Amino acid sequence: MKLLPAAAVVSAFLLLQGAAFDSQASAAGGVLMQPAGIEDNFIGSKQAPATLIVYSSPTCGHCVDFEKEVLPELERKYVQTGKLRISIRPFVRNVVDAAIFLIAEQVGQDRYRQTLAAFTDRYEEIVATTERKGVMGEIAASQGIDQPHFEQALKNEAHLRKLESLRDQAMQQLEIKGTPTFFLNGERLAYDGTVASFDKVLAPN
For 25, 85, 99, 202, which has the most beta carbons within 10 A of its beta carbon? Predict the structure, then answer.
């Protein structure tokens, strides 16, 4: 999977009008906890006894379902009680993923999750529209990013290279082929689309 250069991200929207998205469906030693390019930004306490790493893409429907339906329950049951910390790592599958992550980076860590959520809230519209760049510019504007800063975000070559490094590490060293992919306490987790997948490990009977 070759990622487009940053300078081509904006123009690539013209090629993506109506295009379908490709899905890229055991942690290797200590590699899992040494992400390439981008440091983890954990949800939850550093002292939490359990750690969940999630590789996620904003144009992946299963990822959107996880973040909307399962993640809030995980936060309520395990993060807020100090039992779990979570890092959701960006995994770029296509140019739209790259653009969304670059836009979220533009607003900074304080509003990063909020900005990504604004895009996942309109996931179906983004994947269905033939005016993808316009819709994404509108979403960015709702997060306080004006048009000049929107264009600037899409040309952030330094962060794009970091995203590419993280994805390449995930694919080559962790054998990740699809999203979402979960590692709980260093072990790949079989996910059934519900919080029960995590309960089996975090709150076994």
Answer: 99
Q: Is 5 left (phi over 0), alpha (psi -120 to 50) or beta?
A: beta
Running DSSP on this structure, what letter comes out for residue 36? S
Q: Is 133 left (phi over 0), alpha (psi -120 to 50) or beta?
A: alpha
Confidence band of 18 (pLDDT split at 50, 70, 90) = very low
CA dihedral 144→149→152→153, nearest 10 degrees, is 0
| Residues ≥6 apart with Cβ < 8 Å to 46 | 85
Phi/psi for 41 (5° steps) reads -120, 95
Give me the residue label for tokens 């770029």.
92
Whether the CB-CB separation of 26 and 173 falls below 8 Å is answered with no
What H or E segment, with its residue span, contains residue 105? helix 95-107
Structure tokens at 179: 């999203």
Helix (H) or strand (E) holding 149: helix 147-154
| C-alpha distances in Å from residue 174, one per residue of 36, 168, 183 | 12, 9, 10
The pLDDT assigned to 204 comes to 77
Where are the chain's structural domains?
6-202
Which among 147, 169, 68 is positioned nearest to 113, based on CA atoms?
68
- Just give the CATH number of 6-202: 3.40.30.10
Contacts of residue 127, Cβ cutoff 8 Å, sequence gap at least 6:
21, 59
